[in-house]
Write a structure and sequence with these properties.
Radius of gyration: 18 Å
Structural class: alpha+beta
Helix content: 10-25%
Number of strands: 17
Order of helices and strands: EHEEEEHEEEEEHEEEEHEEEH
Shape: globular
Number of helices: 5
Bound molecules: zinc ion
Strand content: 25-35%
Number of domains: 1
CATH class: Alpha Beta
Length: about 325
Amino acid sequence: MNLSNGIHHITAIAGDPQQNLDFYVGVLGMRLVKRSVNQDVPDTYHLFYADGAGNPGTDLTFFPWPALPPVQRGAGQWDEVYLGVPAGTLEYWSKRLLNVGAGTGGSVGKIETRFGERVLPFSDPHGMRLALVEDRSYDGFVFEPWSDGPVPADRQIRSLAGVRLVERSSEPTVTFLTAALGFRAAANEGQWQRYVIGQGVSGQRIDLRVAGDARRGQWGVGAVHHVAWRVADAAAQSAVQQAITAAGGRPTQVIDRFWFRSVYATEPGGALLEVATDGPGFSVDEAPGRLGETLVLPEWLEPQRREIEAALMPLEPARRF
Ligand code: ZN
């Protein structure tokens, strides 16, 4: 059964917010579509990078927490994030990351093949693991290029194509992901098992590796904080919420995040996930042409705007490379 339709957004922990902005906008060419604060910790930014329109499934977001120690990688943790790019662009990206990305503190691996697709692993300036993938399967995936970006439209990142997950044992997690979100086994390659939902197109994949003796991973700078899975509307969200409960999970109530509505739960291995509605979207409080230009606060935080702005580090426009 199709419970979720794929990745909605992925949220990670960054270090310095200016370095984060310079890398994701200036090097990777993603659009800053929302500049807000962590709704639970409003003295820290919440920065959202996406395609030109902020479509669900393209959105990588960060909590910059420079005071945290680096991530401790381990089990029960989302790991590398796949960013989908058009076929034949990895040479361009490899050069770009080597020439301009390296000066920002990131590092670049070599082009390899995974599950028949060309992949370029790299890390951002704060040690977050990412990989560009020449993902061939875009049926039904909505992407809009960013016309003002530093990367040509035909080479831009166009989706969050998938995510890696490391667990001590696969069975509890796989049972949960199957029942709660609708995943099914699709392929094996080396240490990795691929699970998909729907057609298994962009954004509908998890690659799972079992590391039986791994210590439990800990959040820190460079970690994925959570992966949000998309549902079309409130009714579909309620169905997933019930499926999580039936699978032995403990979902939260629906939380209004203003641009979407969210339910959170932890899978049996310990990784945090979210179930988010496609709408209303990032244009609900800013004109599509002005997304990300000013600090946007949800209505209930507006009365504290002056204190919140005073506590945040000022951000310069992204340096473009
Ligand atoms: Zn989220």
